[in-house]
Structure formats: structure tokens, C-alpha cells
Amino acid sequence: MIYFDFVHAESGPVEDYAQKQLLNYFHLLLKEEKTERHIPVEFTFGFPIPDLAVPFSYDLDDQYQIIATPYRLKISASNPRSVLLGVYRLLTELGCRFPMPGIEHEYIPQIRLEEINVYVCEAASFRHRGVCIEGADSLKNILDFIDWLPKTGYNSFFVQHFEPEVFLNNWYSHKYNPLLNAETLNQEDMEQMFYQIDQAIALRGLLHHRVGHGWTSKAMGIPYACAPAKTAPSKEQRLLLAQVNGIRDFWEEIPSNTNLCYSNPIARSAFIKGVTDYAVNHPEVDYLHVWLADEYNNICECRDCRSTTLTDQYISLLNEIDSILVQSGISTHIVLLLYQELLWPPVHQKLVHPDRFTLMFAPISRTFNRSYSCRGPIPTLMPYRRNRITLPNTLEENLAFLEAWKAGYDTDSFVYDYPLGRAHYGDLGYHHIARIISSDIKELSVLKLNGYISCQELRAAFPNSFPNYVMGRTLWNKNLSFEALEEEYYSALYGSDWRTVKEYLLKLSSLTSCDYFNGIGLRCNLQQAAHYKEVQTLAGEFRLTIRQRLDAAESFRKIFFTLLDYHAEYCILITKALEALAAGRVSEVPELWNAFMNFIRIHETEFQPYLDVYRVLEVGTKYTGFTLDIER
């Protein structure tokens, strides 16, 4: 019998959870001993670690030293979250694998106590290492993902909007899947879900990012985001709204997509009060995202607003928010957004206290066919034209905006990127997008960015979660080779013949296009059409190999080969529709796309954790060029 005796143990929710996780996994990991053994375990944090630089912030910056032998186990870390990260790193070094969200996917080997001999002393390459919720998610999807984050080296979770209601509703209403009956959730159900999500973040000590879009609608007195208005704006509300083409109205009927008249003192005061009240009432939030409307070319054209720029008005609002928070003794970090019109830096305004703020570069219109590391010369910044802007498409155009901001702001910053938000559906092998993620992260230091938050679906594990795995592991250590992670990941999922599967997925990636599915480029593309035709042959032929491996696979790996089998049919059906679209055979497209939609709808509950049916249909019909067969 083996006993772990915790000595000099700090007590707190995260530290206690780290202890429980260590004990639970070691109970599964270690073979039974005939004699009684007592192993001292020590967790410490908040002190300098030998051989590592003192962190700029003990609370925000993660580092740990792990010493593990058959006679002693010690994890020294910068903070309680880092202790938990150290526990999972120790388990990884001992052969455990956490390939995707959900404990049912974990691999825990059996080892003897004498085999433990681990020494690791590392600091994270970047401060910001996280994921932002998108898509259609059940409560279990969200909780499983939060649980998985620290196991893979992440330290942050971003709950977009005031509450994640829209993402839960997308799932429980089974949006875009008429084959499933909508589930009714009352407000009490929702509140309980919100509570469990917040508790899961806190239990692991994850850095809590919150809100983003929604402040403009809150200033109007409308508490929800990303949903059409239930009524037309009142007379009082209209005075707060941006005047566009001589009209003050909700932009395309969605309040959170509507900008305010930021020269109107009442509108400014309402916006500022909404943010400051929230910060005071939510001390659990570490990074409060203060963004404007989620649309562009819809900013106010009144005389006073035209006398300045939107970004100057934005910085002025942030300075007023900061002043009130200083007076209130609130230290919450504010995330400042570089996005759409806000890509252009301010002309006159400057942040009074830049240390409170973190710049977030959000190149939503970028290509994912190339990495930041492949950029060419950076062009001159494109001119700003009120309500006539065009979003940058190339990497170089996007990075020109980042350089312009960085020239005036040497402050904390990260990229908010979208490889697993839309573009990944175009990469059927998930290998290309994983390599882009790896290469992008390795370039962050050159771009003077201190991390990466991925705006993405949580159900992005189809055919596997290799892109998210690469993201978390490389954000912890930017020097990890992509090839080493390939072997570590694929061998865990697919066993000794992992190279055969990898080559198949690599070939799928080489034949498909992130940009084409994301609506970038001409829809008629005969070369791409030929590639899609080739995918159908490749996937059809490889299914025989998959099924042979599935029959012979041990229980842990059966789910991964089952996923590959389902994925092969998915590839065949979606590329039939894509091939017709790219070849210009327009009359064939509806029937082929409908066959694909029906297939994934029928199988959604069977493969729910891995593929977000709502989101692939949303992207395919909003960007790629297909048509949805039901009302949005």
C-alpha cells in the first residue's frame, strides 16, 4: 500500500484540488505495493525557483519545478494554478496522455513506484494561453473543456458575453438540427449552469476572461447580446444610438451589433457605468474585455463624432473607466480590442495608465493558408475612411495594424485568433491547421505578443484534437518541435501504426483548403474541385484500413478509430458538395449539400463531443456558399 503524506501543504481551493488530482491519478497510475510505503509530498508557491527568473507577476505568470522520485515528490510553483499545472505535467512525464476533453479519452498507464524519476524546471513561454467559448455547447461540453485546459498547459478561459447563454441555447435548442427536439431550459436551469461554469474556472485557478461584446446593448438598457431586438428602440434609446445614413436605429435589428453615439454624454456615461459596475460586482473576473459593437461600417456620423476617430473615442472611454476603477480600488485588468475600425490606432488619445490594459489583436479576416512566420514585407497602413473600411485579408495587411499600435503602446498584449472558429472546417485532416497554429505561436515573441487566446468551438475534435493539443503544449513551451508533438499525440491515439494514419490525415490536409471553406477566394476553382474529387477516393480507400485497425484496437483506442471511420464518410459527403461548388456545377450543389446536412444531423448525438453541427452549417452557409434548408 502506498500513502502520500502532504507536508507543509498550503490550504486553499486550488491547492486542495491539486492534491486530490494527484492522489486520484496516482491511484490509477501506480501498481499495488505489497509493503506499506509513505511518500512525502510538498507543494509550495509564491517564492523564487532556482534556475528560473523571478516572474514579472507571481499571480499571472506560470512556472514550476518538479522533483519526483520513489522517495519524495515536490512541486514548487509561482502560484496555486501553476502547482496544478505541475501535477498534470508530472503525470504526462510518467506516460499519461490527455488527448482531448473528457476523462473517457485519457490514457493512464500502469507503472511501479521505482520507475518515478522526473525533474522538470520550466517557465511558460507566454502569459496568455487560453480559449474563448463559441459554437453550440452543452454544460458537459463546457465543463469537460475547462477540466482539460490545465492538463494541456493552458491557463485561461474566456466566457464570452455576460453569461454563456447564447452558446448553451445553441445546443439545447438544437439550432439547425430539426431532427432533434429542442430542450426547454428555464432561467433557474440557466443560472445553475452559469454557476457551475464559474466554479469550474475558479476551482482550477484559471485566469478568468469575461464579456467582450454586449456593452453597447447594456448601455441601451438591453441585457442580452447577439440576439435581435424584441421591439424597436424607444425615443430615449434612439438618442444613444449611432447615426448612420441619417438614421439612429438598431443595426440590422441587433442591439449588441449597434454602436453608440460616443460623443453623447448620456451614452458615454451609460457605457462607462455598465463597465465599472460590472467590475465592482465581479471581482472573480481577472480580465474584463471592453469591446464596442460586433459589426463595422456602422459608426456614428453626427457632427461631433465625425470630428474625431472611433479609436480616439474608445481610448477616452477606457481612460474614464480606469479613473473610476482606480478610485474604487479595483485592480481588474481591462482588455482593449484591435478589431474592425479599432484596428486603426488613435490619433490623439493615449492611455493614462497603460499597465491596467492588455492589447488584444484580433485579425478575424486573415488567411489560414499561411502562418505569420511566412509573412512578406509589411505594407503602409491602409487609409481610414469612416463607414467605408475594408477589412485586411493578407497576413501583411493585418500585421501592419499591429505594428502601428505597437509603435505607440509597449504594453501587455496577445493575439485573439480564429483557426478553430471557422477555417478548421476547411482542413479535413486537421494537420495543416495544427502546423499553422504551431508556427504562429513560435512567431509571437517576434511580434511582441505575450500569448494567444483561441476564439473557437469547444467541440473541435474531428477527426481529433491535435490542433488544440499543439496549441496548449506550444504555448507552454514555444521550443517544442511540431514533429515531436506529432509522434506524442498520434502514437497515443493510433498505436504503433500511427504514421500510416498521420500520412492519411496529412494528405487530406494537402487536398483541402481553409480559405476556400472560409469564403476567401473565387467560388469557381477547378484545381480545388479536382482536389476535392481526390479526397473522395482517398477517404473511401482508407476506410478499409481504418476498419481493420478498429477491429484490432484495444478499448482505449476504439473511439479514435470509430471517429476516423465516421470522419471518412463525412469527408466523402462534404467534398462531393464542395467539388460541385468549386467546379461551377451549381444545379448539383443543393442536393449534395442537403445529403451532407442530413448525414451529420442524423449522427449528431452519437458524435456530439467531437463535431459542432450547428457551427459547421453556420459557416458553410454564411461563408462557403451553401444554402441552409431552414430559417436561421
Cα distance, first to last residue?
Answer: 59 Å
Number of strands: 15
The residue fraction in helices comes out at: 40-55%
Q: Could you tell me the mean pLDDT?
A: 96
What overall form do the CA principal axes indicate? globular
The DSSP helix count reads 20
Low-confidence stretches: none
> What would you report as the Rg, rounded to the nearest angstrom?
25 Å
Structural class: alpha/beta
Q: What proportion strand? A: 5-15%
The strand order across the widest sheet is: 6-7-8-11-12-13-14-15
Please outline the major beta sheet: 8 strands, parallel, barrel
Summarize the structure.
The chain has 632 residues and is an alpha/beta fold. The chain has helices at 13-29, 80-93, 139-148, 165-172, 187-203, 215-219, 235-238, 265-281, 303-306, 310-328, 395-408, 431-442, 466-476, 482-494, 498-511, 514-517, 526-552, 555-583, 589-602, 613-624; strands at residues 2-6, 37-45, 63-69, 72-77, 118-123, 128-134, 156-160, 207-212, 243-244, 247-248, 287-290, 333-338, 357-361, 413-417, 451-457. The strands form three sheets. The protein has an eight-stranded parallel beta barrel with strand order 6-7-8-11-12-13-14-15.
What does this 3D model show about the protein?
The protein has 632 residues and is α/β, with parallel strands linked by helices. It is built from 20 helices and 15 strands. An eight-stranded parallel β-barrel has the order 6-7-8-11-12-13-14-15. Strands 1-2-4-3-5 form a five-stranded mixed sheet, with helices on one face. Helix 3 (139-148) links the parallel strand 6 (128-134) and strand 7 (156-160).
